């Protein structure tokens, strides 16, 4: 009981020290806030990008991707961000690619960007697949209890604004929506899927021919070949063989290789953010050390009075450390609340500006991030207070009582 | 001290109300109405009216000291909080999250409203126990 009362009074003194020195406390909280918010935001962005990349690679389900030369960026943006593009090449190249050793399964896909002002004002990526050979989209259908889609029907990604049972218009043609895929938080969430024979309706339409390409042969175009390799096959050798041996204008990538540019960017972003957080950490700790040292010098008289009233030096040290904990906690909590609310509200603007598929705002991933941010905020504040606390702990009581004299 | 709180509350109402009124048409523009008028346009029109109401409340607080109290702060906070419901629920906007309204205009409206509500609630909290002058 007595101990509790002592603790309460120490806590009370520390609390009053913070609330009565508003400007000093405000500046210290601001330093912790800058450190904690930069740590929170940069970690959130890096985690989201990492997760987006992992999920995209996992979702593709192919070992090799063959695309027309010069269209690898279009393909990458389409898969990672759901950005729209139309590109195609000759279907006959498939026969050449099929000669490659080590192929277990291969299937073509066709990428068509819908027109603007259709489907809620923005273009949508249409992906056509061949149901007979497909091993990519068909397994997703099972997740929504659907075995297949028929001629003329489409299924939509979770982020596409169309409900099952409604229709969606592409190139002035209405297509019935028969399924909506699960949320995958990848670029596929903003794509619409249809069979190759359904895509012919679009390619043969007057609107497509007048606005995109009038010379296209709907029976003879594909955009990409997705390949599943046999177990033990050397993917890099297969990719090199397809790219260089057959003398056809296509390029083959391993799935990881396809996203190596994004992965490199991610590494750069991680390095920059680590530097930023380290600099903020050093600056915040140095600034806090300075403020603690200056104010502790000024407060020697106050500590002297406390010692005269019977406080021990251990309790004085505890007051300083408690003040540091409170400053760290207030700065950390403010940083977490403001950063979390801002990242939630500006989710769409951030993902679009930084070209990441989504911001990972799920509670299961946010809780460890929040705890890490609070821990570092409080830890840095305590670290900054240690020098002052040790000085007060080691000072002669008489020096403290004399104060600044 | 009460005077400062009153001025802060009034200026917050006027500045944030002005931002709500003109922001969606100038700084953080909503979707274009060139081809067709969409739901977000009507949401922003409703927000414009509320922005003007907030500016009028702010002016009243600035001119009449008797109106600077906890009740007017709470009422401003409630107006800011309810404004969030206009684009998010009552009228809404374009369904596609990539559209300008969902990407820029509405998030800015939400942010302004959250800031306004928090400021007014803090001031209302500070007024507790204070007697009207």
Q: Can you describe this structure?
A:
The complex is a heterodimer of chains A (405) and B (133). By secondary structure, chain A is an alpha+beta fold. Chain A folds into two domains: 2-54 and 263-402, no CATH class; 64-232, no CATH class. Chain A has helices at residues 2-20, 22-60, 72-81, 93-98, 138-143, 196-203, 206-211, 235-244, 255-258, 260-298, 300-308, 313-345, 347-354, 363-394, 397-402, and strands spanning 64-68, 89-90, 103-113, 125-129, 154-156, 167-170, 173-180, 191-195, 221-222, 224-229, 250-254. Chain A has a nine-stranded mixed beta sheet with strand order 6-7-5-8-4-3-10-1-11, sandwiched between helices. Chain A has a two-stranded antiparallel sheet with strand order 2-9. Chain A is elongated, with a radius of gyration of 31 Å. The model of chain A has no long low-confidence stretch (mean pLDDT 88). Chain B is mainly α and 133 residues long. Chain B has a domain at 2-26 and 45-90 and 107-127. Chain B is 71% helix and 0% strand. Chain B is built from four helices and no strands. Chain B has helices spanning 2-22, 39-63, 70-90, 100-127. In chain B, helix 1 (2-22) runs antiparallel to helix 2 (39-63), helix 1 (2-22) runs antiparallel to helix 4 (100-127) and helix 3 runs antiparallel to helix 4 (100-127). The A-B interface holds A 117, 119-122, 159, 161, 190, 341-342, 345-349, 352 and B 31, 35, 38, 94-99, 102-104, 107, 110-111, 114.
Keywords:
heterodimer, A: alpha+beta, 2 domains, 9-stranded mixed beta sheet, two-stranded antiparallel sheet, B: 133 residues, mainly alpha, 4 helices
Query: Low-confidence spans of chain B: pLDDT under 50, at least 5 residues?
Result: none
How would you describe the shape of chain A? elongated
What's the total number of strands of chain B?
A: 0
| Main pleated sheet of chain A | 9 strands, mixed
């Amino acid at each position: 009981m007595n101990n509790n009362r002592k603790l309460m009074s120490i806590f009370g003194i520390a609390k009053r020290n913070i609330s009565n020195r508003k400007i000093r406390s405000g500046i210290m909280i601001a330093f912790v806030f800058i450190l904690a918010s930069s740590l929170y935001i940069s970690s959130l962005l890096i985690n989201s990008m990492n997760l987006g990349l992992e999920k995209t690679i996992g979702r593709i389900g192919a070992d090799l991707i063959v695309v027309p030369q010069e269209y690898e960026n279009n393909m990458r943006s389409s898969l990672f961000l759901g950005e729209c593009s139309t590109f195609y090449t000759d279907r006959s190249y498939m026969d050449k690619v099929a000669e490659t050793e080590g192929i277990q399964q291969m299937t073509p896909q066709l990428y068509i960007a819908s027109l603007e002002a259709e489907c809620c004002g923005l273009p949508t990526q249409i992906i056509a697949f061949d149901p007979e050979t497909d091993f990519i989209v068909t397994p997703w259908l099972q997740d929504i209890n659907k075995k297949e889609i028929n001629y003329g029907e489409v299924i939509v990604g979770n982020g596409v604004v169309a409900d099952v049972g409604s229709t969606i218009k592409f190139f002035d043609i209405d297509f019935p929506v028969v399924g909506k895929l699960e949320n995958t938080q990848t670029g596929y969430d903003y794509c619409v899927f249809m069979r190759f024979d359904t895509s012919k309706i679009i390619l043969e339409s007057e609107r497509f021919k007048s606005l995109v390409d009038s010379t296209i042969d709907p029976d003879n175009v594909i955009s990409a070949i997705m390949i599943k390799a046999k177990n033990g096959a050397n993917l890099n050798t297969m990719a090199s063989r397809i790219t260089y041996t057959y003398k056809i204008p296509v390029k083959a990538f391993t799935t990881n290789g396809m996203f190596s540019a994004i992965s490199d960017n991610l590494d750069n972003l991680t390095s920059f953010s680590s530097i930023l957080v380290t600099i903020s950490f050093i600056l915040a700790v140095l600034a806090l050390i300075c403020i603690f040292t200056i104010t502790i010098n000024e407060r020697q008289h106050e500590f002297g009075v406390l010692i005269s009233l019977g406080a021990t030096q251990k309790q004085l040290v505890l007051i300083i450390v408690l003040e540091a904990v409170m400053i760290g906690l207030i700065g950390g909590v403010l940083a977490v609340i403001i950063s979390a609310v801002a990242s939630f509200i500006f989710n769409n603007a951030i993902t679009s500006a930084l070209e990441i598929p989504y911001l990972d705002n799920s509670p299961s991933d946010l809780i460890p991030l929040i705890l890490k941010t609070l821990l570092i905020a409080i830890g840095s504040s305590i670290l900054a207070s240690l020098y002052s606390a040790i000085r007060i702990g080691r000072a002669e009581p008489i020096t403290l009582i004399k104060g600044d004299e | 001290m009460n005077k400062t709180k009153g001025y802060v509350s009034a200026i917050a109402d006027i500045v944030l109300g002005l931002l709500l009124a003109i922001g969606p048409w100038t700084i953080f523009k909503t979707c274009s109405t060139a081809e067709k008028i969409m739901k977000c346009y009507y949401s922003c029109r409703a927000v414009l009216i509320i922005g003007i109401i907030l500016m009028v409340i702010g002016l009243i607080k600035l001119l009449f000291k008797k109106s600077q109290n906890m009740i007017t702060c709470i009422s401003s906070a409630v107006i800011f909080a309810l404004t969030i419901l206009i684009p998010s629920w009552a009228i809404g906007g374009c369904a596609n999250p990539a559209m300008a309204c969902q990407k820029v205009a509405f998030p800015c409206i939400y942010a302004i409203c959250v800031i306004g509500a928090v400021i007014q609630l803090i001031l209302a909290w500070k007024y507790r126990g204070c007697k009207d002058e």
